[in-house]
Amino acid sequence: MASRIAFIGLGIMGGPMAGHLLAAGHSLIVHTRTQSRAADLLSRGAKWADSPAEAAKQADFVFICVPDTPDVQAVANAMLPAARAGQIIIDHSTISPSATQKMAKQFASRGAHWLDAPISGGDVGARNATLSIMVGGDEAAFKTAMPFLEKLGKTITWCGPSGSGQLTKLVNQILVSVTNLAACEALTFARAFGLEPQKTIAAVGGGAAGSWQLSNLGPKMLAGDFRPGFMIKLQQKDLRLALQACKERGIRLEALNLVHGLFDRALEEGRADEGTQALFAIVEKNAKS
Amino acid sequence: MASRIAFIGLGIMGGPMAGHLLAAGHSLIVHTRTQSRAADLLSRGAKWADSPAEAAKQADFVFICVPDTPDVQAVANAMLPAARAGQIIIDHSTISPSATQKMAKQFASRGAHWLDAPISGGDVGARNATLSIMVGGDEAAFKTAMPFLEKLGKTITWCGPSGSGQLTKLVNQILVSVTNLAACEALTFARAFGLEPQKTIAAVGGGAAGSWQLSNLGPKMLAGDFRPGFMIKLQQKDLRLALQACKERGIRLEALNLVHGLFDRALEEGRADEGTQALFAIVEKNAKS
After folding, report:
1. Mind listing the pLDDT tens digit for each residue in A32-49?
2. How many A×B Cβ pairs under 8 Å?
3. How far apart are CA A181 and CA A185, in angstroms?
4. Residue A80 — pLDDT band, cuts 50, 70, 90?
């Protein structure tokens, strides 16, 4: 059955995702800050709305995919007055879990459901509809939204109550960044002693030392290939969210702090748009200073 | 062809390894600090030597598997006067790379070859002959020793000149311990926010966040199952070797320092004989202090 859908934020991720929902036969109304980004979808039958509020008020399902917490809050504030019972908002942005919980409460007071549904898998995952989607919020609303989410991703997990999707995404980012650091330090050690590091990865990567980061980013680190899979500036934004959440909860994670500081140096060196494997350049330089 | 082999150090690793060489039909002479540990091998036809020197002087191949650098140095000092051209020493202990290089030089001056050949895979790997063996030293000597090594392990890598086996083992231990720390911090975060951490591992462990440590030790961390796969006191010994090597080379690895400090706290708490996953208990407590 065709549903009335709004999609707000047509960036490198949101654009292809909105396209999948349109291709599934739904009635789609879109808004994004740079209208030219909507051109392809409009030519395929999507409608344009001049504001997030305008897009949302006509839709039963509102998808959001914008950069950061304040962006989502601006969209939410605009939409809230017109929110209504049964409406489901699905926020694919990676943002603050506690801000998410506040917005979810506001929408719940009007009978609407806010699902936090951050994604991983990059632009390739968005284009190929192979994203991982980590969802928090009302479970019945999640089930209602499931047929849409299945058009966007492959691994779709309901993680628990509101904020759980965001928190799970942050767990993912802690793992990704500290495991990345493990690979950086090990390869720095290997190079400092004149080992052939490709051979070293082959010798140890299949056992207890193995990780996705080592296998996939290690060879790029050694080759100095810092083209982005996932950009440092985005990684750092997510680590900032994780550290902020730690502060709110009164916990301290030392390796997370350490890797966040090292990525800060990468930003200072102008590496914001490089891939996260460029952390290796920082670690190797830092080791010798 | 049956060869004359000496095996020095019949501990939890060396015992079964010597047994495989005996079973392959070689003439085996053994020495170990606690003679009762040799009983099984002696009943199967091995001969006893009263000292490492006595064992080595009758053998073409001398295998060593003892705990730490000073233990190997004591064996080497005892053997050196009787070392002779063509003799091959294969040291399976995990010890200092620079001490290894010194001993290799001393034996080379007498025409003998010293191969550093540290192992990973634990007591199960020793019993089942599925160890990983990382070898450094003369490549021709490595090839000569290969038929014996194949009786002991599955993944056997020549890593480069003398010391390269030890260095590769230390690369492995840096990866293992910092990746372990990544899992500890991520699961600490997950538990602090009331996520269901088993579900979290399932949601994120298959992608860029994935590692052997997370998949294999994560569930044990959450269950509080700290029975040893690899004991903290052994992990810490290897990290100490890695830090010592860094110091000698003038490099500094911050995450390695951090995880070494956390394992120190585990030792202070009496967790020396627990498995490395007990790091989780330290990280979780530390996060809240």
Report:
1. 999 999 999 999 999 999
2. 239
3. 6
4. very high
Judge: B200–A174 Cβ closer than 8 Å, yes or no.
no
CA nearest B123: which of B7, B11, B46?
B11
Q: Which residues form the domain of A181?
A: 168-288
Which of A143, A169, A237, A288 is labelled catalytic?
A: A169
Calculate the CA B37 to chain-centre distance: 20
pLDDT at B58: 85
Give the domain-ending residue among A112, A137, A161.
A161
β-pair type (A119-120, B4-8) = unpaired
Indicate if ipTM > 0.90: yes
Q: What is the pLDDT at residue A1?
A: 58
The minimal CB distance from A209 to the residues B176, B194, B203 is found for: B176
A227, A275 contact by CB (below 8 A)? yes
Per DSSP, which regions of B143-187 are E strands? 153-160
Q: Are residues B173 and B152 in the same domain?
A: no
CATH code (residue A23): 3.40.50.720
CB contact under 8 A, B185 and A256: yes
* DSSP H or E segment with residue A64: strand A61-64
**Quick one: average pLDDT of B143-150?**
98
Residues 6+ positions from B223 with CB-CB distance below 8 Å: none
Looking at the structure, do residues B142 and B179 belong to the same domain, yes or no? no
Specify the number of domains making up chain B: 2
The stretches of chain A forming alpha helices (DSSP H) are 14-23, 39-43, 52-57, 69-79, 97-108, 122-128, 139-149, 164-192, 197-204, 212-223, 232-249, 254-268, 279-288
Chain-chain contact of B287 with A245 (C-beta, under 8 angstroms): no
- What is the average pLDDT across A114-118? 98
Over residues B157-187, the pLDDT tens digits come to 999 999 999 999 999 999 999 999 999 999 9
Q: pLDDT at position A194, please?
A: 97
* Rounded Cα gap, residues B288 and B286, in angstroms: 5
Share of chain A above pLDDT 90, in %: 96
Residues A188 and A96 in one domain: no
The verdict on B233 and B146 lying in the same domain is: no
pLDDT (0 to 100) of residue A21: 97
Chain B residues whose beta carbon lies within 8 Å of the beta carbon of residue A186: 171-172, 174-175, 178
**DSSP class of residue A39?**
H
